[in-house]
Design brief:
5-stranded parallel beta sheet; 8 strands; Aldolase_TIM; rSAM_sf; Radical SAM protein
Length: 321
């Protein structure tokens, strides 16, 4: 609750650079816990809406101990277009499931779209089966759910085995694995803007993943840097491991997918060989084809790839028939 905070003006300034003809479709507010700064959430959501950007906020419901949602937080929730809650065995140690459901009921009663982000160990985790059953029993089809498995990221690295390193698996030069995450600029707590949401990108700040700063850059500049960067284009097309191989670097089998990406700046992957590769006409054609394939797959393909495929249909609950 007393962690470092950047001034509000940094984030307000950046969102104020959104224009009706040049803006992100969605402004997703998470953390940490975005609702620790409810007035800022409200201001950003209202400012974004003026130019057509929709806003979502993800919360761990630190305020659920109260019978009613605090007024300042309720104003922030009213201001956003979508309200989502994180729920897993770890969150439930702090906020009981019944309280989470009560809070969701209050938000639903105000006509707000809501969803749940659920996390379990894997597709066969009985915790997930029970939790999903409880959600369906309480809310029917009113609450969509995005279901993920625990991954070797963030705090989980302190105790979760790195299966990729344990397997010693490698990606061959033929096994392209495009990264969809390198297409979503993320503003950190201090205003630094990274090309993806991996915690390591904002902690380590490798040059090829840093797009700018909310205090000095506008949305148009950040978007252009993301689209024009040869390294980011290659990561979105081939994935980091194949990108490393294409420029003569052999990633360690222990690095894994994201670890290889973090090391690309260190290994000088952004040099002339990659520039020459990405400027080829054939690369541009391949890029367009891959982007079209990903777009054709839509949200469902994205969810199946990055979430637990068994539960992908739960994200569509509540959609119009």
């Amino acid at each position: 609750m007393d962690s470092e905070q950047a001034p509000e003006w940094i984030f307000e300034r950046f969102v104020s650079t959104f224009r009706p003809d040049s803006r992100p479709e969605i402004l997703a507010l998470s953390g940490g816990e975005a609702l620790l700064r409810p007035e800022l959430v409200r201001m950003l959501a209202e400012r974004a809406r003026r130019v057509g950007t929709r806003t979502s906020v993800l919360s761990g419901l630190f305020f659920a101990g109260a019978a009613r949602i605090p007024p300042s937080i309720l104003k922030a929730i009213d201001a956003v277009d979508h309200f989502s809650v994180s729920l897993d065995v770890f969150h439930e140690r702090e906020v009981p499931r019944a309280r989470v459901f009560d809070m969701l009921e209050q938000v639903l009663a105000r006509g707000k779209d809501v969803s749940l982000h659920l996390v379990g160990t894997d597709a066969d985790d009985p915790y997930l089966e029970r939790l999903i059953g409880d959600v369906r029993a309480r809310f029917g089809t009113a609450v969509p759910m995005l279901v993920n498995a625990l991954s070797y990221f963030g705090r989980a690295r302190a105790w979760l085995p790195n299966d990729r390193a344990a397997r010693g698996g490698e990606t061959s030069a033929q096994d392209a694995n495009p990264c969809a995450m390198a297409a979503w600029p993320v503003v950190g707590f201090d205003g630094c803007i990274a090309a993806c949401g991996n915690d390591d990108a904002l902690d380590e700040r490798p040059g090829h993943l840093i797009l700018g700063h909310a205090a000095t850059d506008d949305w148009q500049t950040i978007r252009e840097r993301s689209l024009q960067s040869n390294v980011l284009r290659a990561i979105r097309l081939y994935g980091p491991e194949v990108t490393a191989r294409r420029v003569g670097n052999t990633p360690s089998s222990c690095d894994g997918y994201c670890g290889t990406c973090m090391a690309l700046s260190k290994n000088h992957a952004a040099g002339p060989p990659l520039e020459a590769l990405m400027q080829r006409p054939t690369t541009r054609i391949l890029e367009a084809e891959v982007q079209a394939l990903l777009a054709d797959g839509g949200a469902d393909a994205f969810i199946r790839r990055h979430g637990i495929a068994r539960y992908a249909e739960l994200a569509h609950l509540g959609e119009p028939a």
